[in-house]
């Protein structure tokens, strides 16, 4: 006799019973997991899988970039062996037969981003550059962004820092020629100042895989900040002295320095205006080497050995001036 549907009773399973399916929440008599929880679990698994795939692809991408970059550096080493350490742009173009284009530098720009690499391959500073590229330490350089948008060349320059890849830095040598420095790394990026910091990889025998790199970055950051303070210090000193040497009254600003009254290495050598003195390069070197001194009454004291020197009238005439110019006295007091 067929039992009516309404009279069927599903008895609860015994606590010791094991489900006969691989999905216990689908087994008869077991409470079903809410659909939302199942979907969230599936989504989490998919997200984890995608993240793993993305990491793997990125690692493979970096490995491919590094392999091609290494071939470019090896080719440059061969070129240097053949043509010497100073090269023209023409000697650095169409030199990689396996790449298209096979150049190591751009035809005109300073930043070279070949389409076969993810990040910048080389940077170059031209003669009489309008950019503020400069050496800030032994094997450490500040290199300026390209003018314009932060995208394009500048973004791939930043990417070279993020990926930690080797790049080539071409420094100006004799006219029309450039000296390659390689490999170098971009260890710091300063978007507000629109510059990056390049460091030669063999500097101080740094272990780039360990903690010494972090120490180097900290040192570079301190050096860059100090240089930025020095630039501001110079502007304020030149303004206070009206771009005039306090000793000889030379008014040619390109030959003037913002000297520290107390050395910037001493505890009182802060880059403040009351510790500043505008001096021409000759008097600056003489002051720093204790060949001259200036008293609180503005008298220039000259070392006896300089006064006795017989190297010609120039030394005695220029350094031997006895008193700070009157036009500078109202603007300068070295002991206040």
Can you describe what's shown?
The protein has 336 residues and is of the alpha+beta class. Among the domains are: 82-205, PUA domain-like; 233-329, no CATH class. Helices cover 33% and strands 16% of the residues. It is built from seven helices and eleven strands. It has helices at 35-83, 153-163, 212-240, 281-288, 304-307, 313-319, 326-329, and strands at 111-112, 122-124, 134-137, 140-144, 167-172, 178-190, 195-200, 256-260, 276-280, 292-294, 300-302. Strands 1-2-5-6-7-4-3 form a seven-stranded mixed β-sheet. It has a two-stranded antiparallel ribbon with strand order 8-9. The protein has a two-stranded antiparallel ribbon with strand order 10-11. β6 and β7 form a beta hairpin.
Work out the number of β strands.
11
Mean pLDDT: 76
What fraction strand?
Answer: 15-25%
What is the N-to-C succession of helices and strands? HEEEEHEEEHEEHEEHHH
Shape: elongated
Number of helices: 7
The helix content, as a percent range, equals 25-40%
Distance between the termini: 116 Å
CATH fold descriptor of the domain at 82-205: PUA domain-like
């Amino acid at each position: 006799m067929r039992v009516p549907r309404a009279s069927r009773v599903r008895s609860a399973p015994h606590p010791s019973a094991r489900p006969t399916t691989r999905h216990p929440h689908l087994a008869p008599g077991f409470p079903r997991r809410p659909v939302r929880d199942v979907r969230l679990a599936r989504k989490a698994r998919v997200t984890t899988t995608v993240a793993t795939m993305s990491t793997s692809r990125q690692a493979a991408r970096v490995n491919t970039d590094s392999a091609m970059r290494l071939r470019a550096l090896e080719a440059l080493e061969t070129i240097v062996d053949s043509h010497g350490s100073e090269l023209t742009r023409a000697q650095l173009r169409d030199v990689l037969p396996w790449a298209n284009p096979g150049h190591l530098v751009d035809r005109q720009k300073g930043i070279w981003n070949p389409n076969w690499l993810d990040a910048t391959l080389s940077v170059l500073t031209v003669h009489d550059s309008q950019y503020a590229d400069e050496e800030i330490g032994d094997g450490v350089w500040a290199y300026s962004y390209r003018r314009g948008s932060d995208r394009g060349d500048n973004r791939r320059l930043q990417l070279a820092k993020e990926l930690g890849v080797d790049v080539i830095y071409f420094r100006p040598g004799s006219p029309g020629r450039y000296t390659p420095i390689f490999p170098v790394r971009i260890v710091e990026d300063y978007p507000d100042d629109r510059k990056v910091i390049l460091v030669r990889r063999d500097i101080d025998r740094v272990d780039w895989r360990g903690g010494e790199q972090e120490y180097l970055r900290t040192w570079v950051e301190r050096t860059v900040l100090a240089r930025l303070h020095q630039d501001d210090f110079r502007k304020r000193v030149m303004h206070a002295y009206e771009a005039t040497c306090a000793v000889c009254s030379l008014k040619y600003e390109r030959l003037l320095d913002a000297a520290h009254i107390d050395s910037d290495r001493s505890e009182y050598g802060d880059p403040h205006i009351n510790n500043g003195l505008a001096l021409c390069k000759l008097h600056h070197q003489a002051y720093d080497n204790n060949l001259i001194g200036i008293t609180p009454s503005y008298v220039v004291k000259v070392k006896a050995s300089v006064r006795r020197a017989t190297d010609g009238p120039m030394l005695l005439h220029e350094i031997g001036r006895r008193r700070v110019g009157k036009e500078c006295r109202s603007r300068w007091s070295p002991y206040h």
